[in-house]
Amino acid sequence: MKLDHVGVAVSSLAEARRFYEDLGLVCSGEEVVEDQKVRTAFLPLGETHLELLESTDPQGPIGKFLEKRGPGLHHVCVEVPDIVAALALLAGRGHALIDKTPRTGAGGRRVAFVHPKSTGGVLIELTERQA
User: Fold this and answer.
1) Calpha distance 21→23 (Å, rounded)
2) Is 74 exposed, middle or buried (0-12, 13-18, 19+ CB in 10 A)?
């Protein structure tokens, strides 16, 4: 397992990118994830990435997050070898899952979220290692 990326909710993708690019990071691409009503930009950072998340709909998850909490850390993503097995293990041990089965996230990867009430207040995204 490894840290795949850290998700940061932003009000403006262009403004946030400008800061990180001024810092020396290079955006590897932007993508709209219709299902999550979000536009993302990934910036490689060592062996991990920053994922900037801009809402495309105020009623989407990031839109609601920004309304309630403002910009900032949204989630931490952990890469697991088998996402279905990881979800089964966590559910079997009584942890609250937002997603009981994987869904398609940015880059077409399989992802699932674990509720912050089971993780000490941090939204955890799981993603499966790509072959």
Assistant:
1) 5
2) buried
Structure confidence by residue, pLDDT tens digits, 8-60: 999 999 999 999 999 999 999 999 999 999 999 999 999 999 999 999 999 99
Fold designation for 2-128: 2,3-Dihydroxybiphenyl 1,2-Dioxygenase; domain 1 (3.10.180)
Give the global pTM: 0.92
* 57 phi and psi angles, rounded to 5 deg: -155, 125
For 30, 39, 55, 129, the CA distances from 12, given in Å and listed in that order, are 13, 10, 9, 30
Residue 71 has phi, psi (to 5 degrees) of: -65, 150
What DSSP state is assigned to residue 130? P
